[in-house]
């Protein structure tokens, strides 16, 4: 494994304010406080792992990406000035490590590959809608979503875990990055745009497509489709 | 508004970045179309399920490795 430069950068974008309570945590880390490091590790490791898996299908490679990320954190924390949040800085390290390993250069997603959704219905088959020439209900559901019969999101997460993870694995890299950070990691859109270097608009388009696909995968797995007439 | 159009706007709607006029059209449509209402509700439920996915205990070996690196770096 090459010792690629894993130093994260601390550029911020408008609107990102590192929280004040982070400076105490950062100071503790820089002083070698193991409890502080444990706090940070517990907070970010699961999502780092999840995001690493989105870059590398093989568990062993994802494992190495996360390990190298923490190495980068340990080596870089002494120079960290807190101009971006700790979260953004740590995840930028991971993104750099992962993209370097994958041979991809860090780049913003070109606009042409993130064009706004056109007239197509995304992952929903066009046949599931009445045609534009339909007398009564042009463009309306012909085979609509049926009830999922799941009491709540916890039950859904438990019962459909494998289907959801498989669906996320089959997304394009950019879509996978965005849905992982936004919906699994709970990040807000500004944090994601900063960490991945994409615009708000592009981020929203990627998120839209990712969510539509994962929802469609759950629906298909449940066979939850019904005639509307 | 047609169902086919509405599902394109779901993310803008949930993000709160949708134009007011479109939002009103969507909500009017959802009031009359249980399938579109269901589509949005399912999208919401799926997003909430994604948030539940990482509720797992930490990897103790990974922590041991990270802590070892942290300690080693302090001794330099």
Describe the structure.
The complex is a heterodimer of chains A (229) and B (76). With 229 residues, chain A is an all-alpha fold. Chain A has 2 domains: 21-102, Orthogonal Bundle (Rna Polymerase Sigma Factor, Chain: A), CATH 1.10.1740; 111-227, Winged helix-like DNA-binding domain superfamily/Winged helix DNA-binding domain (Arc Repressor Mutant, subunit A), CATH 1.10.10. Chain A is built from 9 helices and 2 strands. In chain A, strands 1-2 form a two-stranded antiparallel ribbon. In chain A, helix 2 (34-55) runs antiparallel to helix 3. Chain A is elongated and about 70 Å long. Chain B has a single domain (3-74), classed as Orthogonal Bundle (Arc Repressor Mutant, subunit A). Chain B has 5 helices and no strands. At the A-B interface, helix 2, helix 3, helix 5, helix 6 and helix 7 of A face helix 1, helix 2, helix 4 and helix 5 of B.
* CATH topology title of chain B: Arc Repressor Mutant, subunit A
Enumerate the spans of chain B where pLDDT stays under 50 for 5 or more consecutive residues: none
The Rg value of chain B, from CA coordinates, equals 22 Å
CATH evolutionary superfamily of the largest domain in chain A: Winged helix-like DNA-binding domain superfamily/Winged helix DNA-binding domain
Share of residues in strands of chain A: under 5%
Oligomer: heterodimer
Task: Tell me how many strands of chain B there are.
Answer: 0
Strand arrangement in the largest pleated sheet of chain A: 1-2
Largest sheet of chain A: 2 strands, antiparallel
Protein structure class of chain A: mainly alpha
Estimated structural class of chain B: mainly alpha
